[in-house]
């Protein structure tokens, strides 16, 4: 994943500031992380993930809106939504939901690319640094290494 692709994962559309509810704020953080997780998947695998998550949201979306259900069902529904949006971000034109736009590949009608909001960038960097472990990868470590744009702040 290139720096532009990672930056695109954090693109936000500020045309709808009224959409600043907790779900949208949580998605701003979760969708880019799921985009990173799906980076090594094939298009076919991402399409299957999209189908599976769409089915789950169709069945359990009301739990996201109104709560309830068994322990962990709200988290499962939220993660399905975030993962589904991440899978759609790989499609041509990306995806727009809840007043936000997520895409992996720059396209003609894409909102301007920009740095992620500071709270999102800092949290994502902390998680990525935690997951990376030591600076020198072991010989058997096949994980990709991502350059995270910091806007010159680090």
Query: Strand content of the residues, in percent?
Result: under 5%
Number of strands: 2
Low-confidence stretches: 141-146
Helix content: 40-55%
What structural class results from the helix and strand content?
mainly alpha
What value does the Rg take, in angstroms? 16 Å
| Terminal residue distance | 20 Å
The tally of structural domains comes to 1
Shape: globular
Number of helices: 5
Largest sheet properties: 2 strands, antiparallel
Mean pLDDT: 75
Q: How do the strands of the widest beta sheet line up side by side?
A: 1-2
Order of helices and strands: HHHHEEH
Region (Disordered): 130-154
Any chance you could write out the topology, listing elements then pairs?
Blueprint: H1 3-9, H2 22-37, H3 43-66, H4 73-89, E1 95-97, E2 100-102, H5 118-132
Antiparallel strand pairs: 1-2
Helix pairs in contact: 2-4, 3-4
Characterization of the model:
This protein is mainly α and 154 residues long. It has one domain (3-132). The chain is built from five helices and two strands, in the order H-H-H-H-E-E-H. The protein has helices at 3-9, 22-37, 43-66, 73-89, 118-132, and strands spanning 95-97, 100-102. It is globular and about 40 Å long. The model is unreliable at 141-146 (pLDDT under 50). Residues 130-154 are annotated as: Disordered.
